[in-house]
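Journal club side-thread
Mid-discussion, someone asked how the predicted structure for our own chain would compare to the paper's figures. Pasting it here so we can look after the session.
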Amino acid sequence: MEMTGKKNHSVFIVLFCCFLLQSGVLVSPASAGNTGATLITAKISLTAFDIAATAVGQSFVTITWKTNGNADSTVEYGLTTSYGYTQTNLFMETNHTINLGGLAPGTLYHWRVVSSDQDGNRYVSTDYIFRTLFTTPVIPETHIYGGGGGNAPGQNISSGIPVLDTATMPVVTGNSTTTAPVPAGTVLPAQTTAFPAPVGSVQWTIIFSTLIIIVAAGAGYFFITKKK
């Protein structure tokens, strides 16, 4: 009598499922705590980027930033890193904008942004600074007056611009001629002054002429005597 063996696949499948149940692979997350299986979950943290202070004026500034998820918006600001002032927008969004007003001109402020999402995640930025613009000084109009109550020509000065003297020069008289008035600022042509010759040069001219006459007279006398 010959005996033959048959493979029972159903028994093998049952044993394999029991092994999986024992190791916790087929356990649902709800019952993982009861069976000793480890349930791994991932939690994404809230973060912010593109943080900037824009449109800085004398008494206002705009703070903008973005988050990787919907969150509220808060800006803490003040004269020191202790801040002391806050501006909040509870609307949940990823693009955040907070406008600060009532600031002092020409003042240095410290500030930071804070955002929280609905899952309780909270982001707090590092400290930043900005300085508001200085006020533009108003220069008053100035009036400067010269001596004599400012009535003399060319003495009144308004707003730093001198008044030009446009009065004509007085009439100049001499002997029997009269010079017509010359407008102020007229450039007169250059004049040549004749200077008298030095006294010594006149004397030498007379002596030289006399010598020429004597030499000519002697030469004539000698020529006439020799001819006779």
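Post-session note: Helices lie at 9-23, 32-35, 199-227.
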